[in-house]
Design goal:
elongated; three-stranded mixed sheet; Helix Hairpins; 10 helices; four-stranded mixed sheet; binds zinc ion; 375 residues; alpha+beta; HSP40/DNAj peptide-binding domain
């Protein structure tokens, strides 16, 4: 069978750039996806492999140059003896989202993220971290204490009693995975006997019951970036549970939760605040001091300010984004307080005020009184 031209396979022209190649390759990945080819999966898989080979060559400048000059003859020796293999492919990440889990079926053990029978990775640990609005505003260096699985000291994480050794698993021959045929795919699944470790323990360690890991309290220092909000989380790499021997640690995921504030309500980057002012101040005008996350601010109250009027303090809110330098606004709603306790003199003055305003309080009859008299 004569080999097809790589450019033709991908459907791009000779001058195609990296973006064009990727776009074309992704299109083919969708076209040859096994879900779309239930009647001829083998053919689709073959074509996808062909496209992957073309993509591998053309996205490598050195290989591409060689191919442009010498064609397929120039590719002899570029791959192993049997030609292009999945283990030669380096761009799995470009189509990972299209294939999801079944990508492993295409790629088998090679080219994947984790080598066959290799040690696994510890699990991620999620913890909640509560902080005040002020702390979320300034950010801070802090410490969090939580429990995670650590490698067992007694057995160095092997799970086998001191002096004994874990045995190679017979089911998978130490590979940690078993191959199963499903349609044309040879799917590798985790070995059910050893759970993927490739080893079985006949004499388990007492300290960890053969688990190789034990729960232990620990403290991790981290930085809260300024501007965080409830529901946001921070991933701290390699601070999660210990993996099996030789394996990587999982990550620590810190989820933020901002406490309710006595004076401020937050909505995204904006802050809402309520300020109480006296009735004379609202009538005569003046100035008030209000707290903001940036410090005290002065607001000029014009005379005749009605209750519930909203004043905007531009740029006095929270960061618009984490670690951001641009800020939201603070909205201040004034509430005019009606005096509830008056001494004699205050009462006199208010009555005088009422009289002068043409709305005397003593002489006037209430609405219902007038209504009654009319009936
Ligand atoms: Zn142990
Ligand atoms: Zn096994």
């Amino acid at each position: 069978m004569t080999k097809r031209d790589y450019y033709e396979i991908l459907g791009v022209d000779k001058g195609a750039g990296a973006d064009d190649l990727k776009k074309a390759y992704r299109k083919l990945a969708i076209k040859f996806h096994p879900d779309k080819n239930p009647d001829n999966p083998e053919e689709a898989a073959e074509k996808f492999k062909e496209a992957s080979e073309a993509y591998e060559v053309l996205s490598d400048p050195e290989k591409r140059q060689r191919y442009d000059r010498f064609g397929h003859d120039g590719m002899k020796g570029a791959f192993g003896a049997g030609g292009f293999n999945w283990s030669d492919f380096h761009h799995r990440g470009d189509v990972d989202d299209i294939f999801g889990d079944i990508f492993n079926a295409f790629f088998g053990g090679g080219g994947g993220r984790r080598g066959r029978g290799g040690p696994g990775r510890g699990r991620d640990v999620a913890v909640r971290y509560r902080l005040s609005l002020e702390e979320a505003f300034t950010g801070k260096v802090t410490e969090i204490s939580f429990e995670r699985l650590e490698s067992c000291d007694e057995c160095s994480g092997s799970g086998a009693k001191k002096g004994s050794q874990p045995q190679t698993c017979r089911t998978c021959g130490g590979q940690g995975a078993v191959r199963q045929s499903r349609g044309f795919f040879a799917i590798e699944t985790t070995c059910p006997t050893c759970g993927g470790s490739g080893k079985v323990i006949s004499d388990p360690c007492n300290a960890c019951n053969g688990q190789g890991r034990v729960p232990r309290k620990t403290e991790v220092e981290f930085t809260v970036p300024p501007g965080v909000d409830s529901g946001m989380s921070l991933r701290i790499q390699s601070e999660g549970e210990a993996g099996p021997p030789g394996g990587q640690r999982g990550d620590l995921i810190v989820r933020f939760e901002i406490e309710e504030h006595e004076h401020f309500a937050r909505e995204g980057a904006d802050i809402y605040h309520e300020a109480h002012i006296s009735f004379p101040l609202a009538a005569l005008g003046g100035e008030i001091q209000v707290p903001t996350l940036h410090g005290e601010e002065t607001i000029k109250i014009p005379h005749g300010t009605p209750t519930h009027k909203v004043f905007k303090l531009r740029g006095k809110g929270m960061q618009r984004s984490v670690n951001g330098v641009s800020f939201g606004d603070q909205f201040v709603r004034v509430v005019v307080d009606v005096p509830t306790k008056l001494n004699v003199r205050q009462k006199e003055l208010l009555e005088e005020f009422a009289e002068l305003s043409g709305a005397p309080v003593k002489a006037s009859k209430g609405f219902f009184q007038t209504l009654k008299e009319r009936l």
